[in-house]
């Protein structure tokens, strides 16, 4: 077991550092457009990030470091890490009143691999010239907000937040000086995501980065996990059609038109729900722990995620929100910005690694 861990860490470092050494820090959109098979590294990024929460980190970190680093296992929930018991009211945690922070888990492997917290300018460089499409429910909207907070200066954020919090609406923005095009599409149901993917296919251009996620609405309105699984299978199928090479077309002048670049795809996992805090009776009844676990299981069983051979790298909101606990949420469902920021940096590091690998 330990041998496997070390080999994994070593391999991750080799793949990360050799191209970095060769390429330096210079990034361009072209480099970023490459869809590499960096499954194990990007998963390693995911597992090494936890919101920094002192009273939980000692519970979470040992269990992560004693298992292979590439397999984030978030269920069954260990009883001591369940949302209902992580932060008891009146707990004397020194950070209880200050806003939560996150940091990369301080393990030897994350330190040596140099996962980073990207600055706004670095993130802008990385995404320069890119089209970022984010679609889903309010979790996706909070993720968009985290991205914009990083890219835009604070004074530009006020009108953006006002726009983004008009409920159930789409949002479009172009960050002109970096040529970043950002679209948020309100898509509370999986069928909405499938429709968006079908509209993208077969081009003429695909988004460079695609972040999708939904499930809470289905859970509330249908409470049927196996049907959710079927919907996810349809999402997966539509996503796979973006990955299969678009056959080059023979143009009139006899030149083969270049094929469309597939997007980097990310899936926003379901947030941990704190049932007693949910704000309606209906939610408290239907969105209980058992149902959540069944839904979460469908995400794995539908094989939509890279870790089970699918197209999407998981941004594990469930794990991150559980790490932060009930002190990070007012309604048991939407979390403080730290959770989405941490997920954003997992995504950026994954993109960074993939872009470095294409040199
Ligand atoms: C973004 O890329 C364009 C060319 O693709 C370049 O001219 C511009 O300087 C870049 N901007 C930044 C901030 O890197
Ligand atoms: C999402 O799907 C539902 C159910 O299929 C549909 O009623 C709704 O109009 C769709 N919403 C959007 C924004 O496409
Ligand atoms: C959870 O909710 C489902 C659906 O409403 C219900 O059938 C089930 O009995 C509930 N389970 C618990 C443990 O409350």
Automatic annotation (TrEMBL):
It is found in: Membrane. The keyword NADP does not apply. The keyword Metal-binding does not apply. It comes from the Eukaryota. Keywords: Membrane, Transmembrane, Transmembrane helix. One of its GO terms (molecular function) is acetyltransferase activity. GO terms for cellular component: Golgi apparatus; membrane. Its main location: membrane. One of its GO terms (biological process) is xylan biosynthetic process. The chain crosses the membrane at residues 6-25, 32-53. This is LOW QUALITY PROTEIN: uncharacterized protein LOC105046800. It comes from Elaeis guineensis var. tenera (Oil palm). The gene is LOC105046800.
